[in-house]
Design brief:
Layout: E1 2-10, H1 14-21, E2 34-38, E3 46-53, E4 56-68, E5 72-78, E6 83-94, E7 97-106, H2 111-142
Antiparallel strand pairs: 1-7, 2-3, 3-4, 4-5, 5-6, 6-7
Helix pairs in contact: 1-2
Length: 144
């Protein structure tokens, strides 16, 4: 398993951050190279995220396994490429400020080849997700 945890400060109340982060389709506006669909708003809800350029990429399907508004949503990655768990967590700092925490525990495909490949790609992946979270923070801050 590969553990990734990133945090971004958002100038918005926890409820606003939660509403923005669980508006799955709007993630397409800030998540780099990804189109998200889903109606999940409870345990068992389904979400799908296609990451790529044009038709070249992969589909990340997820099922919600924990739903605790406005603070936590956990998912189980159920696709062929992305396996493992993820968590979206919102921490209230004060009435107008929150932290949004993105956590992934990924079960890499292809054994040793996948592990070595991810070690090479990890810095790029982390950079892309961090930039996406920073974009999310700006959007959520202006919508609060």
């Amino acid at each position: 398993m590969e553990h990734i945890q990133l945090t971004v400060r958002v100038n918005a109340p926890a409820q606003v951050v939660w509403e923005q982060i669980t508006n799955w389709a709007s993630q397409s506006d800030w998540m780099l190279g990804t189109k998200v669909t889903g109606e999940g708003n409870s345990i068992g809800g389904k979400i799908a995220a296609f990451t790529g350029i044009g038709p070249i990429g992969f589909l990340d399907t997820m099922e919600i396994t924990r739903w605790e508004p406005p603070f936590r949503c956990d998912v189980l990655h159920t696709g062929r490429v992305v396996r493992g768990t993820g968590s979206f967590q919102v921490e209230s700092i004060d009435q107008q400020t929150s932290n949004f925490i993105w956590i992934e525990d990924l079960d890499l495909p292809l054994g040793v080849i996948g592990l070595v490949g991810f070690k090479i790609l990890r810095p790029f992946f982390v950079f892309g997700v961090q930039k996406s979270l920073e974009k999310f923070a700006k959007i959520a801050s202006t919508n609060s």
